[in-house]
Write a structure and sequence with these properties.
Elements (H helix, E strand, L loop, with lengths): L2 E8 L3 H17 L3 E3 L7 E10 L3 H13 L5 E12 L4 E9 L4 H16 L11 E7 L5 H10 L7 E3 L1 E10 L2 E11 L13
Antiparallel strand pairs: 1-3, 1-8, 2-6, 4-5, 4-7, 5-6, 8-9
Length: 199
Amino acid sequence: MRRIRLFTAFAPPVRAMDAIRPAWSLLREQLTGIRWEPEEKLHSTLKFLGECSEELIPEIVDALTVLCAEYRGEIPLRFGNFDVLPSRTRPGVVVISIEDPTGHLTRIHERIEAAMEQIGFPRETRSFRPHLTIGRIRERNRPGILLEKTETVTFQSDLVPISEIMLVASTLTPGGSIYRTIGRFRFGKEPPSRHSNPA
């Protein structure tokens, strides 16, 4: 039985990246000892499923299709500023914070948690904090400089909408993770009928 590593996520919209790039470029110039993520890999994880059997993929796809179809409309989000996780005293990654002013993203996250729990995936115990991971810290002996730069290089996007989420497979390699999108699920898109019409 083949195993596969999965997560659900959404990608930053084009308008968000237009706001992110100038500030991110400036931050990269001012910080060393960080492995920056390629732009094409940026995403915000909604639910990390971990390693599971490939046989579960159809059930996961069905659940995501249904819950996204039931959500009408796009979700407006605001991207900015920079921060570090998991904590300011023990920074491991550099992130871009995401503001969810309507609370709709949090509700989608909660529905994904409930749907995946029905399939057998445990609920996440940490509080939901949407973000984009943009860099992984390799040198952790200068947290003061890191915090100073992430606080002084600031930006904020306008409200930009997302209209879909993704199911992504992740393969771990010595050079980093390789992502493959298994499915995209648009909000408000009705799932296809399982039954053909009678002739």
